[in-house]
Amino acid sequence: MSAEEKVYQVDLLTRVEGEGSFYLRVREGVVEEARLSIFEAPRFFEALLRGRSMFEVPDIVARICGICPVAYQMSALAAIEGALGVAPSPEVRALRRLLYCGEWIESHALHVFLLHAPDFLGYPSAVEMAKDHRAVVERGLSLKKAGNALIALLGGRAIHPVSPRVGGFSKVPRRRELLGLRDALQRGLDSALEAVRWTASLPVPDFEQDYVFVALAGGDAYPLESGDRIAVSGRADVPVADFETHFVEEQVPHSNALACRLADGTPYLCGPMSRVNHHADKLHPLAAAALREHGPPLPVRNPYRSIVVRAIEIVHAFAEALDGIDAYVEPERPFVEVTARAAIGAGATEAPRGLLWHRYQLGADGLVVDARIVPPTSQNQARIEEDLRGVAPALLALPHEAATRRCEQLIRAYDPCISCATHFLRLRIDRAGEEVPS
Amino acid sequence: MLALAHAELGRLFDALHAEGYRVIGPTVRSAAIVYEELDGPADLPVGWTDEQAPGRYRLVRRDDDAAFGYVVGPHTWKAHLFPPRERLFQARRRPDGRVGFDPVLPDEPPTAFLGVRACEVAAMEVQDRVFLEGPHAEPRYAARRRQAFLVGVSCLEAGQLCFCASTSTGPRVDHGVDLAMAELPGAYLFEAGTERGRAVLDRLSARPATAEEHRHLDEGIERARGQMGRTLATDGLPELLFGNLDHPRWAAVAERCLACGNCTSVCPTCFCSSAHEESDLTGDDAARVRTWDSCFSLEHAEIHGVNVRPTVEDRYRQWLTHKVGSWVSQFGVSGCVGCGRCIAWCPVGIDLTEELAAIRADSAAPAPMPVRQAPAAATDDALVPRAAVVIGVTRESADVVTLHLACDPPLALRPGQFTMLSLPGLGEAAISVSGTWGDAFEQTIRDVGAVSGALSALRPGQQLGIRGPYGNGWPLDAARGRPVVVIAGGIGLAPLRGAIRFLLEHPLDYPDVRLVYGTRTPDDILFGHEMLGWASRPGFRMAITVDRADLSWRGDVGVVTRLLRREPLSPEATYLMCGPEVMMRFAVEALTAAGVPSDHLYLAMERHMKCAAGFCGRCQYGPFFVCKDGPIFRHDQVARLFGREGF
Amino acid sequence: MAAATRPRLGVFKLASCDGCQLTLLDCEDELLAVAGAVDIVRFSEASSRPDDGQPFDLTLVEGSVSAPEHVEQIHRLRARSKRLVTIGACANAGGIQALRNWVDAEEVMRVVYARPDYIRSLATSTPISAHVPVDFELRGCPIAREQLLELITAMLTGRRPALRDESVCMECKRRGNVCVTVATGEPCLGPVTHTGCGALCPSYDRGCYGCFGPRERASTGSLASWFLQQGMVPAEALRRFRGINGWSEAFRKESERHER
Lengths: 438, 647, 260
What we know:
The structure holds 3 protein chains of 3 kinds. Chain B is α+β, with helices and mostly antiparallel strands. In chain B, 26% of the residues lie in helices and 28% in strands. Chain B has an 8-stranded mixed beta sheet. In chain B, a hairpin with a 2-residue loop joins strand 17 and strand 18 (400-407). Chain B is elongated, with a radius of gyration of 28 Å. The model of chain B has no long low-confidence stretch (mean pLDDT 95). By secondary structure, chain C is of the alpha/beta class.
């Protein structure tokens, strides 16, 4: 390595979900190579889903991710129910939104406190951070616990819930069971507001990029469990059903994950920053107030500030959850009966990490003919590499070690979920010359 | 007998509440009629009945408004007397090695059980024998049982799977309850069974029942008796089953049986339990928790890594031969009350009445079964340890240690007994008493696992938990005046040491004592020092053999039986044996071949124990409990089962 | 416990969803206490602390062996672990991704990519025990928090972990659940599935789908016969046994019995 060439790399990223590495080579101030390599082994979920009953899909797709299983279940149900023209009751839809709030809380709290915050204060982990900032870490753990409790009540358990099913839920809670969570959620809301203040006080590198922000849209609510359109900054909304025409996946040599870009090759960003930039007006008033008082000015374009945006979304989720519990009406029936027929449908929801799109083709026998899933981290992969290129000039002024940490902190700002991203490799299984759609 | 109109049933709830009881009774939930807390008559399953078949239970609407128009569902009252999960005690261990144990006792509010069927009353009475008749009584069960206010309801309709008529446990509730009820289409009839039942009855402002109502009740009972969906021939069932332990039907039912434990869980008399330790990360603050277990579970029959009932066939046979067979020898009544739950809730619909009929139809000769005498019950809480202190430790061999212990008040011990030794948060093990010394006593432990290993590592001054003593002792009285041969294998010498000392201390009563002892290697010989002292006593001779040794060993190498046969085997002598079961089997064979009668042979049996007090059911050996009927058995008592797989 | 004598813990992941590792972080009330009692040396999901290459007292591994690198990695981990515990269905049985084991390897590798040689993947997804001896299998998908804590507590206190191998039915009945199969005809794998989840699915009015894998003596043949007798078609019986733990021996044999 000559004096003019600098290489920043980490062979196994830590404090991210899944297995990836990054490599950034800069020669005389020019970025020669910026790679996010995802080498986590693919599990071929789309192929596994073929031939399974549509009723098995929520159980199977949950296993794509241990941190955001609800997101996979909800996107799958949106697609399948959309395909079959099944409309769950408003009470069931409200319950699904409540369940999703639980997951946002759990996932964001995990990321903010256990995965990302240590970077801002210079610790290798939250456990080390707890030695000097015990109250902060305990706050993060208690926020996560409250989110998990909400998922567990509605879904049976926090990881891989068992009750979501086509048509609704296998069982719904009694009103008094939900009210039993109220105190913990209220305490969580107060704690989350404190978390906004705290994250807003963290030292943050100056770094902004010109992003194309992509987020689910449609309806009056902050995007979460439903939406029929996708908002793309500076362009027309894309109907969810037309996703594949406007967003294109491509395999890259250095990664087991497909990278997704706009049809014209532009990388884009999905996740909390996109959501707040598109839909700040739909934030719960308490979250909106927190944004106004402590949040970055909009549009927020500094990925290092995503930690504050996540904290604001935690406030939003707690506030929505409390409203949801107070308004809860037990559905008359936990689920509606569903008749199988040949159909195709697509659906999207906002996972904690961003837009999660599913598409299913179902047979008349109720079995899956074809499945396609595009997770948020795949969509962000190209944008992460762009950001690495973008941050390179600022690194040159830093000691090597600190610069490498700065890159990691940047990648972590995306809250990448690598296990998800690798599981969507397309498989075309040709059986004796029979063409299977890809 | 008094009567209320249907619309007045609320008065019963008011009366029970006024007397301070919460009411648990039938209600519809999750597509079944279950027992839960009720607020009032509106919570009852009015207008519902249950249609049952093997492996199938459906709630069906009646065309009337009967509130008790069903039979039994998946819940039993045993869940409220003997809960599925219960903390027995809290334990703590301090840095200085002292331990403490605090019993956890029931704290439920006074409860009335509304809707107890005749078969369920009978089931409670069966469990009373298990938990309240000696040698130990279970205080938690006793407290809940005493306190529970029972409102029995006779059945005027039988269910499809009922056979209480065959087991003589119904359908009329005529005893064992505080208040007996029956539901006629136009009225509820009541009769008090106890003083407190009368107190509730007095609050109902009920009118006397009419003669017609009396008649309708009797007719209804008779009708129910005649409607039974099943029959079971109970004559000689225990003898029949134990005479047919190799019947092909066992293998046939094992093809279907899932060994899932549902039958034992829904059975109102099943009582087997397990126990485990729960603790904080350090183990210094711990609790022992008892949970429902089943003879269908893997760990039920596991001892030192060996499983006595590895196959489904072994387990099904254990269950059924116990339920309607050895149960009678153990408790004086059958364990089956004819409720049919095991048939309904078996996921594959196995019907025990069918299985038993098939065996009876084509059976070999019946086997005699022992008759049980129940000893008087002790009143202590046998399940909570107290502290004992280590006064000394003797290392006997590489993996065997003797702890010299004392506790206050001192234990009254007989050679052959054992205790349960424990450490908080770690667990408990059954350890033989290997001798006494004034008020102190010795227990010899072989390090074979986490608990025995930790006990072996204790040092003088440290404390441990102790329960007991348990078990019978060696029959030293019966052996008086005759030659005694002691046959020991390995660690089996430990429970025999106390007996040998006693025999040697009374040479006039025992002029001729012979010890035959086998162990793995010369380094494993236990109590070698003490043995030298024995060897010098007149009237005592000793032979030792090992499995293998190096050239420095001048003694015998080979199995114990060879050593045994070196001298004539007197049919007059008493033979006391303890060691690996295979060794005892060969010894018994050799002795029997030499003409020694079966009732001169005594074996120390070992089975997995969680409680050692006669409740957990795991140490059962056919009709016997190793903990209370043993561990020492006379060979003729157990000849039929000794050496047989599955028991 | 003095810091010098704290047992060393390593947490690793092969091919999986991360849910089992996350379960340790989901012990929110106990996490800091555990981190005090045990030296969490390597846990890359939660910590940037580098691997010091020294042996572990306890190694928890999640995920199935699904790529050539995994084979190497698990052998290295076994060599430096006093106790190796596999956590979760992927590590214990190959996971849901083991479904690809039934597809002809040739077919699986003919992928529609610009450059298929970019992807290196084993044709099969196999349990860790197929490659190295394993000291204990903690079942689940995901594992249960309470069971993970019991495993760690048992190691610290020196007791045998109180983790039973019995049917889900036992726990269902202890909880007072009404059997979904007997009362509604809903198929349930509870009788043949290893306990540990707290009888979760029947508590939520649905049948067990085998997250904790087969228990000892799983009589899958008898259960499957019953399903078929109640009207289930063989293709569905096959699917029910070919799920999360489909590659485990008892479930695999049963699903294969129903292939056409």
